[in-house]
């Protein structure tokens, strides 16, 4: 009996580990925002794919991924894929390669935009989410913006139409009076949904999206990028859980069999 309860405890621990596997991948560090990607949210990953192709693939490639695979995994029919997602090629078997060459990228931005297939695994989902939310106005930079997460980034704020423009909160501090600042801070507190601390930015000009909608928009992109970094993840996890459930059922039968076997002996 004792060994059975130990085994079932181990099985439950294994199940918990399988489920939390994704959350554990990101370490603790001082990023302004945290985010755990949801690759099983198909509509979100589809929206993210469309946003990525529209706003990012002009500069960034995802060379380890083919359009056909994206279409298959995200259940996007070929005609829709061609019409809405394929801006850099018209062959579905092609890899997602940016139309911007490395040399051009280096010439224009000082450094070629990196391939983003494995970005969420290299940097973390939190990091990419924070990066896309952390462009702020900085007239000293060539692009007029800087980034809190990647200081001195040479990428322009490509999502400015959606987010609008934000300033670093400290910059406000010197301009505004003490009382006004105090009030503002409380307002920001409410904005920083669920994060216990105030946003490091003040929105000076809102874009076409409300801050909350922008968060969702960026979340969609990160969900798509997390899918791209490991296209089989969703399938593999569900297979792992099925395998553990199967083993638990088997354990139940083994236990019944053991009881049956020893009944006459006791
Ligand atoms: C106009 C070209 C351009 C567009 C469009 C663009 N980027 Fe970039 N991106 C760059 C450049 C250049 C860098 C390199 C920045 C640096 O290291 O200074 C970069 C860097 C990045 C990085 C950081 C890479 C790293 O690990 O250092 C991420 C993440 C990223 N881009 C995501 C995106 C996403 C998501 C989009 C679409 C919403 C996008 N980019 C659109 C040019 C672009």
From TrEMBL:
Question: Per the UniProt record, which residue ranges are transmembrane?
Answer: 239-257
What are the entry keywords? Answer: Heme, Iron, Membrane, Metal-binding, Signal, Transmembrane, Transmembrane helix
**PROSITE patterns the record matches:** CYTC
The record describes how the cofactor is bound as:
Binds 1 heme c group covalently per subunit.
Q: Where this protein primarily resides, as one coarse class? A: membrane
The entry marks the following residues as binding heme c, namely 56, 59-60
What cofactor does its activity depend on? heme c
Gene3D superfamilies reported for this sequence = Cytochrome c-like domain
Among SUPFAM superfamilies, the record links this protein to: Cytochrome c (SSF46626)
Q: Name one GO molecular function term.
A: heme binding
Localization (cell):
Membrane
Region forming the signal peptide: 1-25
The cross-references to Pfam families, in alphabetical order and at most eight, read: Cytochrom_C1 (PF02167)
What are the annotated GO cellular component locations? Answer: membrane
- Region (Disordered) residue spans: 169-197
Per the record, the domain of life is Bacteria
Q: Where is the composition biased (Basic and acidic residues)?
A: 169-194
Specify the Cytochrome c domain's residue ranges. Answer: 43-136
Q: Which PANTHER family match?
A: CYTOCHROME C1 (PTHR10266), CYTOCHROME C1, HEME PROTEIN, MITOCHONDRIAL (PTHR10266:SF3)
- Which named protein is this? Ubiquinol-cytochrome c reductase cytochrome c1 subunit
What is the scientific name of the source organism?
Panacagrimonas perspica
